[in-house]
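Thread: "does anyone have the structure for this chain?"

Original post by V.I.:
We have the sequence but no experimental structure in hand. Need at least a predicted one for the grant figures.
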Amino acid sequence: MAGGGDSLHALLRAANALLQKRRYHAALAVIKGFRNGAVYGAKIRAPHALVMTFLFKSGSLREKLKSIAQATYAHSRNLAYFVFTYKGLLAAQSRLQGKKIPFHSFLAACIGGWLVFGDNNPINSQIIMYLLSRILFGLSRLAVEKGYIPQPKQDPFPLVAALVWGTVLWLFEYHKETLQPSLQSSMTYLYEDSEVWHDLSDFLIYNKRTDSK
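Reply from O.Q.:
Generated one for you, C-alpha cells below.
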C-alpha cells in the first residue's frame, strides 16, 4: 500500500513539474482552455435550459430532462472545441511569425467560429446573438475611444433601449417568424397569453386553463 502511495506522489510531483515548464505553456494552455470551455459551457447552459424547458416546453419529465442534458452537452462541447481551436491556432501563428499580433486573434477566432459554430441550430444561434449584442456595444465604445465618432453629450442608452424595444415588439406583432423561437415563446407568454382568460383561475393563478370548461 505504501509503495502505491509513493508512486502516486511521485507521479503528482512529475505532473506539477511538467506544468511549470515554460516551453510547454502554449500546449498546456490549449488543454486547459478546452477544460474551461467545457465547464463554463455547462455552467451557463444547464440553469438556462432548466428554466426555459420547464417554463415553456411540454412533455414528460424524462423528455424534459433529456432536452436539458442535450442542450447542456451541446453548449459545453462547442465552447470546449472552440477554445481548443482558437488557442491552438493562436499559438501556431505566434510560433510561425515569432510574435503575436492582433490579426492572429481575429483569424483564429474566425476559423474556430466557422468550424465549431457554423451549424445553424438553436444553441449556436443563441450564442451568436448573445455575442452580437455585446460586439455592437463594444465597437460603439471603441469608436468613441478612438475618436471615430464624437463623445455623446448625453448618455445614449435610453435611446438605444427605446429603439431596441420598439423594434422587437414591432417584429413580434407583424413579423413574428423572423424572431428566434425562444424569444417568440417568451413574448407570446407576456403579450398574447395575457389577452386571454376565462375566470379567476387563469387570470391570476394559471396562465392557461387546462380543464374542459
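V.I.: this helps a lot. The mean pLDDT is 89.
O.Q.: and The chain has three domains: 16-118, 122-149, 152-212.
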